[in-house]
Amino acid sequence: MSIRPNLGGAGPNPYTSGSIVATTTPGLAAEEAAYVASQFGSSLLGIEIGNECDLYGSSYFSGTTWNLAAFEALWAEFRSAIVTQTPGVNVTGPADASNESSWTVPFGQWATKSNITLLTQHYYRGNGQSASSTAANLVTPDPNIINDLSILNTGSKGIGVPFRISECNSYYNGGSNGVSDAYCSSLWVIDFLFDCALGGSVGVNFHGGGDGDGYTPIADSGGAVVEARPEFYGILFFTLAGQGTLYTTSISGIGSLNITAYAVKTASGGLNLIIVNKDSTQNLQLTTQLPEEAGTATLLEMTQLSPGASGPDLSATSGVTIQGASIGTNGSFSPSAAYTLSASGEQVTCYVPALSAVLVQIS
What we know:
By secondary structure, the chain is α/β, with parallel strands linked by helices. The chain is 26% helix and 28% strand. The protein folds into 2 domains: 239 residues, TIM Barrel; 119 residues, Golgi alpha-mannosidase II (Immunoglobulin-like). Strands 11, 12, 13, 15, 16, 17 and 20 form a 7-stranded antiparallel sheet that branches. A 6-stranded parallel sheet has the order 1-4-5-6-7-8. About 4% of the residues have low confidence.
């Protein structure tokens, strides 16, 4: 868990540092952080001071030039108060919105690992209120994320501090209705999570909550779970690949089809392959060349089907299953037995339907 004392905004009892006005004080933030640390103990990942600091500007502060230096000065006051009251508590930052090169990495170089335990960054594919934020756009490869992750990875290694995507989802401003809460998010999130893992991120935190339209992996009302949304199915499917070493994969012979593949060498010695077919019409018969001879191979499938439909629909907000099973509001999940595949030497062949993801487990 990451807790954020907010630095900015107009409100009662303002704290003034020069001409910078905020709704809290270092002392109040320190009290909040101390209480949280006492309640959560080892479950507390860190205290994150501020939120999307690169966007504050005149909306939050008046009479000052808001820039990285101004943020760092104010951040240092809050951190000092927090760690004085709660020695040893982890502090993270800067949690900016989108400026990896001009905010996140320079902030990390200024803060150093003596002041932060985690470099944090937010990520969204785009604006949920934009007409271009469609299902088709969401499952199209993002041209920016690989470069952004590379900048973060290089910057974090340079200061000896890991980095994490501490807030993310499909489209910001609550998401795009009928997109962020639809089946396309199931397929998108698998690619996104593997991109983060391959790019060096030590984890992600998804933004969500409530039961409204738009994004949230788990919908809730009054603290009670209402449903697991399509996005959660993709997150669960990603976790089924297990922990281990990510192998480099390549795909040939598919032309311009929108398909991705990932391989995880598990701690037990098995090899798990995830293949995501985002093409709307093309079913695939794929032969995988393995790094070693296969013994047995099984397959689990994530897909979507609405009543009366003949195939998956990227815009559908229900009907997602993993190996025929849905996820209960209590977290129950009982998939059918995996399909058995035929393995021949160092090759395994499998069928990947249009708009589906499959997990091939090889031992």
